[in-house]
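Preliminary data (for renewal application), 3-methyl-2-oxobutanoic acid complex.
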Amino acid sequence: MTTHSTTSTASTGKRKITIFDTTLRDGEQSPGASLHSSEKIVLARQLARLGIDAIEPGFPISSPGDFAAVQQISRELQGVEIVGFARALRPDIDAAIRATEDAGFRRLHLFISSSQILLEHQLRKSQQQVVQMAREMVAYAKQHVERIEFSPMDASRTGEEFLFELVEAVIAEGATIINIPDTMGYALPDEYGRMFRRVRENVRGGDTVAYSAHCHNDLGMAVANSIAAIQAGVSQVEVTINGVGERAGNCSLEELVMAIETRKEALGVETGIVLPELYETSRMVSRAMHFPIAYNKPIVGRNAFQHESGIHQDGLLKNRNTFEIMDPEALGIPRNMIILGKHSGRHALQHRVAEFGVALQDGQLEELFTRFKAIADEKKHVTDDELLRIVGSTINQTLERFVLQDVQVVTSSLKNRVASVTIADQITGAVQSHSATGDGAIEALIQCIKSAMPFDMEFIDLELQSMAHGERAKAEAAVEIAVDGRPYRGSAIDQDVVMAVAHASISACNQAARSVQADVEAQSGAGAVS
Ligand code: KIV
Ligand code: ZN
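Predicted structure:
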């Protein structure tokens, strides 16, 4: 259940931190990440499923589309507090009031620049003019909405004396939440924490309001600064999914929430975030904003829970807590903790092979291990598809059901793209060609592969990466499909993007076929392939 108090204490005795999500406002200010209002609505529904306490869905005055998105989200998500964002200007406030008027719970968030450098060169106002504007606009907003959040923009580069004066003025006019943004990502954790303590102690009325942290990541300290603010007593943190936002971004929701979750005993706080929704939310935002996630990004990056070193893999297989401080499955992240590469050992190899339903006989593991190391020495990592191939030749059995025999695509800027593929099915012996059209070559190719499969396959995700520069650059494709709701991933590298996607898709299909067959064998009591 959503709580609308910023000072509530949860039943566990831990202080509850309100999670304020600004992915759809500050996050959208990330270059190239702008969203259509219909995409905002879909993402806002997911944010509600994630258990966000307050959503800032846009900047109502900035465009009719943003106004409409804030309005629709206010009407639909009645259980979440909706935040209307506005400069300390009457037209902005009026737009924010109108856009949020149908919300079940709402607040207005007013901001004005406060650092001397912004006053001189951006706002071109004196400190006294700023205090006057802030006073008048908070008083005006308060006539319409009870909960008023106020942000002095660039607070961490604002002189203390002026910061105190400004905050005191808006509290006197009825502001209920004081957000102290580190707008430029400049503060150090101890400085940032101290600012909250100093404001609370030195501003008249400072102990009557709630405090919020809002950190940018220019020096990579947004999460550390937000934690320092929590330790200094703030009850709300402003975050974005995947840390998207202006320049280097905002405090990342998933990193902050998992730091709180993992170290809750040390921090004595908790959030209401629904952890199993974290990964899906991250993927949705990444896709909608066309914003790829770095492989090594904490929590949601592709490598975040993958282990290549043999020592780590061995430890993990004995007890997961040896080398992992979080359980990825609890965050909705499919577990694929072991990447097979040149550092992997026999234990990890045997474990992965067993996952394919293959039990190796005496001596086969040693033979397989030698072959595996020879490939691993050449390549960065051994994909499941390659592994199936060498396991098959070690045990003299074909484990790859589908073999891609031919791929053709015809692209024209005037017509639909056409693809045709020929796939051999090693179980039935059939070799069939399928063709399809699509708006793009890859869409057409995927349609062909879907129609060639004997099972219903849902194409979930495709990530493409360029592996090198120049004319001979290679593409790496990572494909995710689902069969009977179970996800399978395949990756492939090729100089031709379409071929990389084709091989990665077939690899995922082979894994699905292998696991469907293993299920059938298990049910019929046939046991593992050996
Ligand atoms: O970074 C910032 O200062 C902001 C606000 C205006 C709160 O996004
Ligand atoms: Zn910001």
